[in-house]
Amino acid sequence: MKTPQVTHESTGLLSSRRAAFALVLALLPGLLLPSCRTADVLAPRSKPAHTVKPAEDWTRSSDEGQLDPFVPRVNPLGAAGNQTKIEAAFAGTARKAAKISISSAPMQTFNSLHTFLNSLPDDQDMIAMGIPKSATSGRVAEEERNVSIPVWVYAIKWEEDHDWHIIVGSDPDDGNPVYFNVEISGLPPKSSVDYNTLLGARQDLADVLDNDLPGGSGYWAYEPFPVRVKGSLFYDVSHAPGVVGPGSLKPDTAWEIHPVTDFAWR
Hints:
Layout: H1 8-32, E1 50-53, E2 58-59, H2 82-86, H3 96-99, E3 107-109, H4 113-118, H5 123-128, E4 146-158, E5 164-169, E6 179-184, H6 195-208, E7 219-235, E8 245-246, E9 255-265
Parallel strand pairs: 3-4, 6-9
Antiparallel strand pairs: 1-7, 2-8, 4-5, 4-7, 5-6, 7-9
């Protein structure tokens, strides 16, 4: 049996192949697994600080107590915990059709709350329209808008209809901030095409607040923190402008985002 002879040429070829193979192994994770590459990651956010304030300090709409007797009430302090609150069905009746549905309009993105507020129709013009309060009252043409606005969160309250009522505003460092109301709506029936999106918005709130969700009879006042809110416009004919909200944080308008479709840190 003849023994194979190893030449300098074959040795050099083997070394070259080994070097090439080592190079491929080094590059392979980046070539085959691009999703594993390190991305820019935001620094972890601290849980927003808050103090609990008395419910009587928050002026409510007269229609918020009109509840659907066929929708089970959720106890926000019950043993079932956050998931029960997150999955709570909308229990109100006033303009229910509009509050639990999302406009089909394209998204409009604003760079400031002031710019957004300047784009809204006048309150008196909306009041003069005589929009009905019935449960079947859908959106009017002026409400058929989806918007995205950068804001700061100032206060949140759990309502009996299972909405989270959120007072947002402009930058607290502005010296004279303005305020606006956005509502993370109780859920529509599971058969609704908007169910998953509105459920996602409720989970968004839990994520931003690190699962420390407001509940009970009082409201939570926050050290203002920045978020971007997206959702459909809604004009609340259940109360006059400048009436609803806590103390000096009452918005000057009865316009709202209701329902919120996305709620995230910025």
